[in-house]
Amino acid sequence: MHLKTHPLDEDSRSWICYTKVTMETRVLFIGEGLFQEGLTHILADQPALEIVAGADSWEEARARMAQEQPDIIIVDHANAQLREVDLAPLLDSGVENLKVVYLTLAENRMIVHNRQEIINATPTDLLQALKGFTR
Question: Which domain holds residue 102?
Answer without folding.
Answer: 24-131
